[in-house]
Design a protein that fits this description.
By secondary structure, the protein is an alpha+beta fold. Helices cover about 15% and strands about 25% of the residues. Helix 3 links the parallel strand 3 and strand 4. The longest helix has 19 residues. The radius of gyration is 28 Å and the shape is globular.
Length: about 625
């Protein structure tokens, strides 16, 4: 685990020395002296304020001050500095980090954060939620992606905070600045800094928050489970006033009465136990599993009751605006309603104003390439449906080791509430590499600023390609005849805040191109999706006994399925009942009893008098 060192005044900086020998584990070092000297020399008043608050908290603790009973909700924003590389981490990776934060700070049962059996292990009653409104009240997903033109996210320090508008840094949001790597100050080329934070009673409100490496956010994506995802748990503890458990050694202390003194930072596993200080009474072993030590993240599992009291007292003193009811509403984390968009269709994204081989779109549209831009969406001038450009996914050159990765295109919010009819039109050109492997494309719609998404389209390359093109070489459409257009009915989503998300799912296929993304009252395609279902698939096929059927309902329907053979003989019916809009599935063995003879069967899915038929082959 890697965590920051306390600088008794302003910043806590965590460093890890990466061993030259790969057989050695990382060793963590603290730069407390450097930052302490810098802070006190520039602002002696910081030390005075910290000492004053520590004395006040001691008095509150001795008076058995109680802070529990109210859950503090913290609106959090991740500012991701990137150059369209792997440091531009996915929303899923950030959500994974939020999960870990909440498990740790809420001591959630059944999670590592809730696994401690220590009687003083505490639910800190602090919960983190991604903000849903930006400082202007607009639709927001909690992630502010910043193209790092000046390279400040590489070898980063506090200068990156200045790249973020002060509107974000005025106390309404808890800010996490995600960078490629962090500047070290000890001239050791083998040292790697993982994150640092600012205490609440030092420095300006404008510079509060955490700076951390992108590859230590969460446990998925560019991070990993072995990293534990607890760099941020540790750093947030500093932001809320916690010192390291080993602060100033056996005769110093972290200003918390129920954490045993620790002589020095601990590393590695939380076992076997050790007792580095014997001057406490009762004499207790080091609390290796405490989030504020440097032990491995996958064995840490405790904030104590005393640490909870200290953090909550700091919040009630220094973060009153952040956790206030009015701010929770303003940032969209409580009593949320999506703001009405001022963007009114018709609108077309034709990629004509974008630069070829670039990853930035106009008109508020954006790209999310989860493995970095080397394999993700990019604008091209080598193919088009109309005009001179399109956007494509180079699936042909995509590494097969990254199978099942997804890449997204997001629209801004649009107001469809005044439209009598609304459609999403788009043109696509693609090919399969071989018929047994197929990439797929899904379209989602959101009416709540992107907090939740509903699938309205799901098809594989075998359906998307015009005339079922299969190519073992790199596919580039040579003419308009190799494009196919689709129209999706948005009648059920005519609200004042609608967003579209297009997701490409890689499965070892060939290149896919998109053009002329259009939202209007006109159907621009002769290929309309079924009025009630799409994305229907049956697999495996052939099957030895049973196959799975997936389908997506475009609106609420009463659905039934039946199984017949090619002679019309009926084998069984499954009444699925009234199903909500969205994705559903069933297994074909739910349609019959016993073992099906080898042969060809038809699976019929029916709703409202309309039917979709699939062929099933049973072969052993």
């Amino acid at each position: 685990m890697m965590m920051n060192k306390f600088f008794s005044t302003i910043l806590i900086l965590l460093t890890a020395t990466v061993a030259v020998n790969a057989q050695q584990r990382n060793v963590h070092q603290c730069l407390t002296d450097f930052y302490t000297e810098q802070a006190i020399a520039a602002h002696p008043e910081y030390k005075i304020e910290m000492d004053r608050m520590n004395e006040q908290l001691k008095a509150m603790a001795s008076a058995h001050y109680k802070t529990n009973g109210t859950v503090y909700i913290v609106p959090i924003v991740f500012h991701v500095f990137h150059k369209n590389g792997k440091e531009n981490i996915s929303r899923e990776q950030i959500l994974d980090q939020i999960r870990i934060l909440n498990e740790d700070y809420r001591k959630t049962a059944g999670t590592p954060g809730g696994s401690s059996t220590n009687p003083i292990a505490a639910d800190c009653e602090i919960e983190f939620r991604l903000a849903n409104r930006d400082p202007s009240g607009n639709c927001f997903d909690g992630i502010n992606r910043i193209y790092d033109t000046n390279g400040l996210g590489n070898n980063a320090d506090d200068a990156v905070k200045g790249l973020v508008s002060s509107l974000w840094r005025g106390g309404k949001y808890f800010n996490v600045y995600v960078v490629s790597n962090i500047k070290d100050t000890d001239s050791d080329p083998n040292t790697t800094t993982l994150g640092y934070a600012q205490f609440p009673n030092t420095g300006s409100t404008l510079t509060r928050g955490v700076v951390m490496r992108s590859d230590y956010v969460g446990t998925i994506g560019t991070s990993s489970k072995t990293k534990g995802g607890r760099v941020l748990t540790h750093e947030v503890g500093h932001c809320f006033g916690l010192y390291h458990t080993f602060q100033s050694g056996c005769f110093g202390g972290d200003q918390v009465a129920d954490t045993p003194p620790v002589a020095d930072q601990n590393f590695g596993a939380c076992t076997p136990s050790k007792n580095s200080c014997t001057n406490d009474s009762p004499d207790l072993p080091d609390m290796l599993e405490n989030y504020m030590d440097y032990t491995d993240g996958d064995c840490q599992n405790i904030f104590t009751t005393g640490q909870k009291t200290r953090m909550r007292s700091m919040i009630s003193t220094y973060y009153t605006t952040l956790v206030s009811a009015s701010n929770l509403a303003a940032t969209g984390v409580e009593n949320y309603t999506a703001p009405a968009s001022t963007n009114v269709p018709p609108v077309t994204q034709d990629f004509e104003t974008a630069t070829a081989n670039n990853f930035t779109l106009s008109g508020g549209w954006s790209i999310e390439n989860l493995t970095g831009n080397a394999y993700g969406w990019r604008v091209t001038d080598s193919a088009k449906f109309n005009g001179n450009k399109s956007i494509y996914l180079p699936s042909y050159t995509h590494p097969t080791s990254l199978t099942r990765y997804t890449y997204n295109i997001y629209s801004p919010s649009y107001n469809l509430s005044m439209m009598t009819s609304a459609y999403f039109n788009f043109a696509v050109s693609c090919a399969q590499r071989i018929t047994t492997l197929s990439d797929s494309l899904r379209v989602f719609v959101s009416t709540d600023c992107g907090k939740s998404w509903t699938t309205i389209f799901k098809e594989g390359a075998n359906v998307l390609s015009n005339n079922g093109v299969v190519s073992s070489s790199v596919f580039v459409p040579a003419s308009k005849s190799q494009w196919k257009t689709f129209t999706l009915d948005l009648a059920s989503y005519r609200t004042s805040n609608v967003r579209i998300r297009i997701e490409f799912f890689y499965y070892r296929g060939n290149n896919l191109y998109l053009d002329d993304l259009n939202i209007s009252s006109q159907m621009l395609s002769s290929v309309q999706q079924s009025e009630w279902v799409n994305g229907v698939s049956l697999y495996p096929n052939p099957a030895t006994q049973s196959a799975k059927v997936d389908f997506t309902l475009l609106n609420k329907q009463s659905v039934k399925a039946e199984l017949v053979n090619m002679m019309g003989q009926h084998f069984g019916t499954l009444n699925l009942g009234e199903l909500a809009q969205g994705e559903h599935s069933f297994n074909t063995d739910q349609l019959h009893q016993g073992t099906l003879p080898e042969g060809v069967y038809l699976v019929k899915i029916t709703a409202g008098g309309r039917q979709h038929v699939l062929k099933l082959i049973i072969s052993r």
